[in-house]
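[Backbone geometry]
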Amino acid sequence: MSKQRHYMLDLPQINKTSYCVQEWDERQAAKKQIANFDPYAEAPEEEEEDDLPFACYICRRPWEEVQKPVVTQCKHYFCEQCALKHNAKSGKCFVCEKPTRGIFNVANDILKKVQQKKS
C-alpha cells in the first residue's frame, strides 16, 4: 500500500510567495537594465531624427567645439584628436571594440549638421 501525503498550504503564504517572485523578477529586470546601460549613449530627448551623436564619444565635447570630427567604419563618431589617441592605445573602436585598422574618415554628416545649426 502506498502512502499518500497531503500538504496544506496557507493561502496568505501562497500570496506572499507570488509577491516575492514578482519582486525578484522586477529586481532582475532592473539589474539587466543597469547592465545594458551605456554611459556614452545620448539621452532620448537629445536625439534627432538623423541619429547622429551630439558630441565626441570620448571627450564629450559638442561638435561645435571640435574642428575635425571623424567617423569609424562601424559608424561611431569622435574628434580626430581623441580617435588617434585612443587608436594608439588600443586599435579598437572606443564604443564597440571592433578593430578600426586605423581608418578614420571625415565625418561629413557631422560637419553638415554643425553648418545647419550655425545658419
Observations:
- The first helix runs from residue 11 to 35.
